[in-house]
Amino acid sequence: MEQKVIQIGSSAGVTISKTAMENLGIKVGDTVNTESTKEAFLVRPKTTANIDPSVLAWTNKFIEKNRTLLKRLADK
Question: N or C: which end of the chain has fewer CB within 10 A?
Fold first, then answer.
């Protein structure tokens, strides 16, 4: 989904669609964790669980690689 970067005071922001918020399990007012690289900006719900970062990274890679298949399985 293409989004426009908007001015918010002296900062900038990008809106998050209702669907994306539902998928992330977040709502207005929640705290999220963000991470950025030269190619991507990642938003994750803030969790209190102590998850090993390497396990989380592997899981995210697996999901991205298999997103279509996982979606088809979820729809069954």
Answer: C
**Domain at 6-74: CATH code:** 2.10.260
Mark residue 40 as left, alpha or beta (left: phi above 0; alpha: psi -120 to 50; beta: remaining).
beta
Tokens of 22: 């539902």
Q: Alpha carbon of 35 to those of 46, 59, 66, 73: distances in Å? A: 12, 16, 22, 29
Q: What is the pLDDT of residues 13-72, one digit of tens each?
A: 999 999 999 999 899 999 999 999 999 999 988 876 677 888 888 999 999 999 999 999
**What is the radius of gyration, based on Cα positions, of the chain?**
15
